[in-house]
Amino acid sequence: MAEHTFKAKLHRWWRRVAGHDEALLVSDLPEHLQDKQYDSRIVLRLLSYVRPYMREMIIAIILIGVVTLAALAVPYIIAQILDKAIAKGDVALLLRLVAAFVGVNLISWFARSGQIVAMVGAGQDSIYQIRRALFERLQQHSLSFFDHADVGVLISRLTSDVNALQDLVTWAVIGTAADMFTLVGIVIAMLSLDVYLSLLTFAVLPIMFVLTLLWRVRARNRWRKVRYYHGRMLGYIEENIQGVRVVQAYTREDLNLKKFVEEVNFRFNQAQGNAARLSALFFPGVDFLGSLAIALVIGFGGTAVLGQQITPGVLVAFTLYIGRFFDPIRDLAERYNTLQAAMAAGERLFNLLDRPLAVESKPGAPEMPPIRGEVVFEHVNFAYNPELPILHDINLHVRPGELVALVGPTGSGKSSLVKLLNRSYDIQSGRLLIDGHDVRDVDLASQRRQMGIVLQETFLFRGSVAENIRYGRLDATQAEIERAARAVGAHEFIVNLIDGYETHVEEGGANLSVGQRQLLAFARALLADPRILILDEATSSIDTQTEKLIQDAMDVLLEGRTAFVIAHRLSTIVRADQILVLSGGRIIERGTHEELLAQRGEYYNLYTMGFMAVPLDEGVAG
Amino acid sequence: MKTLRRLLQYMQPHRRAAALTFLCLMIVTVLNLIIPWIVAQVIDIGLGKGEKAYLIQAALLIVAISAFRSLVSIGQRYGMERVGQLISFDLRNALYDHIQRLSFTYHAHAQTGQLMSRMAEDVNSVQRFLGVGLLDALSALIMLVIIIGILVAMNPRLALLTLLPMPFLAVLVVYLAQVMRPRWRRVQQAFAQVSTVLQENLTGVQVVRAFAREPYEMEKFDTANRAYMNERLRTVRYWGISSPVLGFLVACGTALAFGFGGPMVIRGEITLGMLVAINSYVVMLSGPVQRLGNTINMAAEAAASGDRIFEVLNAPRTILDAPDASDLPAVEGCVRFEGVDFRYGDGKQAALHDIDLEACPGQMIALVGHTGSGKSTLVNLILRFYDVTHGRITVDGHDIRDVTLKSLREQIGLVLQDPLLFSATIRENIAYGRPSATDAEVIAAAKAARAHDFISSFPEGYDTVVGERGITLSGGQRQRVAIARALLVNPRILILDDSTSSVDTETEYEIQQALNTLMRGRTSFVIAQRLTTVKNADQVLVLDHGRIAQRGTHAELIAQPGPYREVYDLQLRDQEEAAEAVARTGQRAF
């Protein structure tokens, strides 16, 4: 096996020596903690967002050049002060040089301010555009896309991944330029002052490079582990706070504390310690190299001063340059990490942007005229995945105003059928006509605007109750909102809320009961006044009074519309104009309640089994 | 100040590490100060007097000192980070333990997010201050004193002049941080708004699509996105314009040193080496002075964080074992409520009035009533999540307040409507209440709970990880794992919520079977939504506004008018009709 190869052994040895003895591999880390090598295509595409701000970029780069030059000039001026002014006793020159020194620092101050302002402007704007483009793209996707997408992942794309790019565009690019300028500048300045001393200083560079390289990779890995274990720890805490009832009911406090202290918190603490140990080794190492270089310069350079080959000022300038020499090297190493993270983020973002749309309006498709509500399925076949057909040869004719109840076991195709209606997916073959228009030939938005969906799980937005109802029709007046609320019987509970219609709805409608949320969703749908309504009946239990309200509200809502209901309530099914019994993606039976019961077929079986979430006594069923 | 002193107590256990670190810090500080002095000697003696040997010695001395300094500074850097980390480790442990033992009165009002931010941000800010911040400030202070001493010894007048920008530097650092902090907070808030809009849009995507509200959503997002961009732009711009002034102030120190010191060298009042050394010291000082300023801000932040942390740690645990509490012996399961009144801590109205009931071992009690009628409160009292305000609850004759919490709760099983599983393997979840259970016992429990089949169908079987980092179980599957979890504890008393939302018929049936297995032979309290449950119950209690409005068996209650009939008509009748339809046709479904 692979574990016995020499390479694997070497790898294990290295991991042990390098302190990677923890079980966690980088490849085990979550996506956002992984990185990617330099990829010029991603960079080019990123640059296309920055291109409109080329002017700002160029200004920023010029200004950072000024800052760098100023920084390099400082040791030179000091050398001049020592050699030309003080050594020769020229006070006037001294004051001029000091003035020049202050001037150079003033320029540096202004240039740095200007550079940050220019850079941030360009960076923020391009980041704004990228985030906007991503959100826009998400709005264009049909529901089919979201069936398979993880909301948490999408959110982290638009937040942390975009932020990684923000760091790159705002700081890393300009920082890299600054570091490069500084490095080159110092090398030139040193060489022009004294070649011999310069070469002496450069002698420590190879060690510095090796040290930095070693540190870079390992520091990154260790910090990633810190973040990883931090996330794990927070997850653990959160879960136990939310589940505190279970924790206490099962008297797990002692055990959970032990696990927290000895594992969860301990691992995080250990990861933090590992990271701290590494920095504690690296930075003094760098400092030592700096001192070594200074010692070399003093030892050899001092001798040169005695031999009159160089002036004392040059010697002092050299020590000052050495002090500024190592920072850019270390920064560059750290920036490489930023670059890799941004590269990975960029790749993920562009993948998301490039994902093709599953359902689109045809170019130039006409608007759907006002719908009367006739729905026809002609030999409709549908599959999410061509190898696993979901709906077979569905034929259906629904007249305007009819109520269609869909019945069948989970996975029989009920939800898929209604999803086709508002074109969340496109069918593979056959035709789906609304008022005689093939839905693929009309403008998508104009069709969807005339259709309503009420889901089992009611989703409310943060905002006032009125705003939530208004979501059905944005230009509705307060009077219209109240009328809709009254019609579905929601008005009474709304006016009893603290601020009536202006009561703030918390995230997920947490401050409202399940029944109240459903009533609001009904009011919202009623206000939208769709011609075709899709309704997924909720099965969750609510209190009796609300249950009654909801049944009444449904009557109001369904009236005068073509409605497709995934039905769970007996009362709904019984009064449907057509009941479609689905099984294995086919309509196996259709008709009214009485007709179907009389057939003694699958409907009858389902019915007697209690398909409306009614478990039966064994005594009754058996 | 009181908060900071209390925080400092957390340093107590690590005082040796802290002292050692501080020692290292002192050594490093002193060694740092020696180097400019050596350079000064090099300039004055080595170069000034032309002693070549002195140069070589100085160079070697620098190498030796730096090598030593680097070694010590490894300890100092590690120690500074580590002390803070160890303190935060202890703080998190204390917080975690306290939070998980706080009673329900507390948890009912505390927001998870708030508690989480105590454990994360607040602990971090304390860590930063007590570790790096405090020691750094100490070292900066000491350095300041020594440097001022050296400068004054060299030349008091020049010392005073060159140190002139330092107070400004310190004040400016403090000021800038104070100005920037609210700004950055606004940026964070603006960003939070972006995430909120995004999250709502994504979780509510079906509603957005249903009403074709994409353009409206786009506008909403754009507003938030633009507001965030502008806020960040303003803040970074402000910072960009104001912060480089710090660098300029440091440069002013150097300018003053040379501007006034240069002529003094020329006049022979000080040596050239001294001038170079003074400049080095002034530059060297600017770092600690800035850090000192930062530490003041850190201290303010840490004090605020400390207040929030202690607010949690000071919250009293209201449900505690009585001082003379004994363990509840193995019970038969006879639960009695005797004249129980209960009122939530801040409630004006009592949540339960005058409840009397007796559940004999093995009986099933069904609780029926509207939302808010007191069903959940009643079962919470049995577990002693809250203490009764009046009256008493006994289990086998023992007042539950006289026995230890652990021994009481160990004999009660709980299955919630939305069963909470933890991010762990299925095996660990089932064995949650009895971690010592053998594999055979876990599997037996899973089989009895009708969960074995679907668990075995996973490639990893019982080792499948559920939750955030693993697979997501369906509602029905979670329910059955939770039932297995309760079964494994083999409690004498059982509390459960029999309403399962949106599961398909077969699952529903399986869950019902599992619940029946679970309840067999135990005293059970069921918050009932199902006809089957109320029909099988030995007693049905109809709760209304915290009182038992009616009690009896289903057959007794259905025969008389009253609240039970009302509940029955709306919630249960549908189920009855379906059952009757079957009976009418006289045929078996399966």
Describe, in plain words, how this protein is organized in 3D.
The complex is a heterodimer of chains A (622) and B (590). Chain A has 622 residues and is of the alpha/beta class. Chain A has two domains: 26-354, ABC transporter transmembrane region fold (Up-down Bundle); 368-450 and 562-622, 3-Layer(aba) Sandwich (Rossmann fold), CATH 3.40.50. Chain A has 22 helices and twelve strands. Chain A has helices at 6-17, 40-50, 54-86, 91-140, 143-147, 151-193, 195-202, 205-242, 244-249, 253-306, 312-354, 414-421, 444-448, 465-470, 478-487, 491-495, 514-528, 544-558, 570-574, 593-599, 602-609, 618-621, and strands spanning 375-385, 388-398, 403-407, 429-434, 437-438, 451-454, 463-464, 504-505, 532-536, 562-566, 578-583, 586-591. In chain A, helix 3 runs antiparallel to helix 11 (312-354). With 590 residues, chain B is α/β, with parallel strands linked by helices. Among the domains of chain B are: 1-155, ABC transporter type 1, transmembrane domain (ABC transporter transmembrane region fold, Up-down Bundle), CATH 1.20.1560; 156-269; 331-411 and 531-584, Rossmann fold (3-Layer(aba) Sandwich). A six-stranded mixed sheet of chain B has the order 6-7-8-3-9-10, sandwiched between helices. Chain B has a four-stranded antiparallel sheet with strand order 2-1-4-5, covered by helices on one side. The longest helix of chain B is centred in the N-terminal third of the chain and has 50 residues, at 52-101. Chain B starts with a helix and ends in a 5-residue tail after the last helix. Residues 585-590 of chain B have low confidence and may be disordered. Chains A and B meet through helix 3, helix 4, helix 6, helix 8 and helix 9 of A and helix 2, helix 3, helix 5, helix 7 and helix 8 of B.
